[in-house]
Amino acid sequence: MVQKTVRLTVSQAIVKYLCNQYTVIDGTKVPLFAGVFAIFGHGNVTCLGEALEKVKDKLPTWRGQNEQAMALAAIAYTKTKKRKQLMIATSSIGPGATNMVTAAAVAHSNRLPVLILSGDVFDNRRPDPVLQQVENFNAPTLSVNDAFKPVSRYWDRITNPEQIISSFPQAIATMLDPADCGPAFIGLCQDTQEIAFAYPVEFFREVIHKIPRPRPDLGSVEDAVKLITNSKKPMIISGGGVKYSDAERELAAMAINRGIPVSETIAGKGTFVHDHPAHIGPIGVVGSTSANNIAAEADLVIAIGTRLQDFTTGSWTVFNKSTKFLAINTARWDANKHQALPVVGDARETLVELESRLCDWTAERDWLAKAKDEFAQWNALLDDHQKPTNAPVPTYAQVVGMVNKFAGENDRMITAAGGLPGEVSKGWRVKNPNTFDCEFGFSCMGYEVAGGWGTAMALEEGAVPIVLVGDGSYLMMNSDIYSSVLTGHKMIVVVCDNGGFAVINRLQNYKGGKSFNNQIEDCKVVEPFYVDFAKHAESMGALTRTVAGLGDLQTALDWARTTDRTTVISIKTDAYQWTPGDAFWDLGVPEVSESQDVQLARKEQVSIRSKQRIGV
Question: Do residues 57 and 171 share a domain?
Fold first, then answer.
């Protein structure tokens, strides 16, 4: 029997294939790829651009202003969709491609899928060196796209038309695999994109993808049951994997039934609402005194869906050295960290298996009550720090508290690097699950506004992204304010202007250093001056206001709810006051210094390091 074929260019075949991939969300079949973020250049406009134009009504293409930003928007989209629906980002060759390396690292660190399609050099090398080609003198097959290898879960370069038949299914399988989830990068050689080939019609059949739920090994489950039932004071650390597994209900049942307090990582925040009866606050460096105090007393930590980053563990000083660890994760790598008992499997399915085997075991009587008492004290501290005062310049805590009260139950808060992650991790009281997005897996400055744009595309009608961004991150990447105005995806952006990189200045001072090159007034400048962020955002089509204090902020937020497009509010914030609750963070402090302050900081650093749990 003769196999039916259709003659298409490589680019046309790629687009046709991607258009026939589907998934199911809440019982409804939807396209696996919701759209494409694209900046066209000579490396992708004539072939891939031609193919995308033909399907613009089925696979919409959105033009970004910066390649890194549009890839970050794609990441925020899939994060909002809990990894169930994806976006594509495409660029030309050279700087357009390398701009996306940072975004790929964000996706890789956060275990988030995004498909990156970049133009590449000519496979035949006939016109070499082409525009924007970086030549490697000792390895002519290398291009700048090889820079994506360390930050991609799947990497390929298409040099032959037939290769896409095997490559793209593998890329999709990787992005949808809970264990290997992350960015897939495919480089498209310019001369390969144009080639026509007789592709099997079967390659373009409709495929409905289902995200797998790997079950845990039952022997590992039995070992975990023994570990849990031998504990008296266990605690749970809920990571982002719990949300992506849709395991919130199973986690809540186990925590309440067994009397186990639950803390959340930054990625896991929003698993529970703030006032959930088992929730005790965030843990670690930007955590709460409640969770950190309980962690110091816990005899067992059940880490679910978390890679146990140093901000979660306080560089491994938060826990008692004798504390045992049980790590539940779909990724073998994450489950086998720090001498934990690994249970490799889907969070929801593993919790079901554990709960069915724990019989009548519960944690020590009053253990959860004690944790909730700690949490009550933490809430009182938050109330104290977030309440309005007569100070002329509000603190981050006060701004976060007011924006939090303003946010609707289905609005989604987005922020990233700088001082805000600590303040929102501690002080944002989640009203509804999956309404909190703080990019701290890679701590990428510039994610905020781009992430707001991608989030606006993903949210249900009536919900609004609320972006909290510092002046430092705003100045790094803000052009998607313009993108959101162009495409009609409204977000509310609150710019907290504290005059520079205030949280790093805090760290600099805390470790004995003098303020230097962080706050604008401490930099080598002609004179300290400040940006009018409202006017800047207005020039990109946003509606804007500059407010002088908390009262004006409340009025401006109420107004922002009524506007018909992206709205930006700028407010001066204090650069030196922060919410307490921090744990230790290990980093380099000079062993030798003429400064007595640095010497004291070094002595303290060495002393605290003695408390670290030694892991592998």
Answer: yes
